[in-house]
Amino acid sequence: MTMIDISDDEIIVERRTGKGRFVLFCETDLPKDSLIPWWSVVIDIGGDGAAILVRLDERQADQGFTAVALIRIALVIGEADNERRPSVLAGECLRHLRKALEAELQRREGLAEAETLHLDRESSHGFAWLHAEYGDGGMTLSADPSGNEEGVTLEQLLIVLDQLYLDASRRLPGDGRLAEAGVHVGQALRLEGRRTLLPAGGRR
Q: How much is the CA Rg of the chain, to the nearest whole Å?
């Protein structure tokens, strides 16, 4: 994950979490014939912005987190937090993420993953997963799921996935599996957004 300064004219889309953290989608160094109008995503990690590269799959670019890798990261950190703080909203969010992963794997039609996803655990911390690496890219995950500590939150990951599926679906309107994965990601994002705004100790 790279700290970065960007100009306003590079930003294609700006989105924010319920608590105000930004996610900026930028056309910086956009690969030729890109399926989506952005490649770099600058994420508010708490007081600073850090960048990752994102692609739908290995057919779109030779670098970056793929949709399937991002869904897997979201599932792992979501499951870890739900184990620590079980709730109906978190459980439903995970159900939709599993459906999204199933649809995305079917959409890929056996396309082999070019990179291996690595998740680093810090057992001494209350939150199990603190860093994700995929190929040459990496991201620091927030130790607090609501974003009260530095790092990328689950809600921010879901915003990235939601925008990825929205933009890819515009270019591939006939891809039913793509649309299905996007619907489940959108539902997961809405549920996680509601959950993070609950008062401390809320378990709905």
A: 16
